[in-house]
Predict the structure.
Amino acid sequence: MSKTLIVMRHAKSSWDFPYDDFDRPLNARGYKAAATLGDWLRSQNLAPDEILCSAAKRAQETGAGLNLHSPLTQIKELYMSSPEILQKYVQQAHGNTVLVIAHNPGIGEFVERLATTAPNHERFFDYPSSATTVFDCDIDDWSELTWHTSKVAQFVIPRELS
């Protein structure tokens, strides 16, 4: 049996007001991108069984904006986390399809380390806002998730989905 891991950087956030970084909301483009990604995930039959999401406001708003009706767990440690912290939480997941929403630079490093081979896409290594990678993980249990063992099935950014 295999698992599907979807790794998403939060959508574009607002810099309009002097928010504390943790409390920055999405901007209009971010809300639109989250809705677009939610539509895309549904069209690909990739509704997750569970969502592991940073507790930061922009990540929470991204998760809500996807409109997937999947259980979402807020995890404070995923705010500005390292790839190792992201891996630790995914290794404790329970669903067959799991979505993780977090922040750069950790989320970009996480996908690079997971991938057996990077996709041929100029934006994969800078992992812009809303970048989303779908991995096919040839594992029976999330505890088996290790570096450089997951096949990139898809990599998208919302601009390419419009």
Q: What stands out?
A: The chain has four helices and six strands. Residues 28-43 form the longest helix (16 residues).
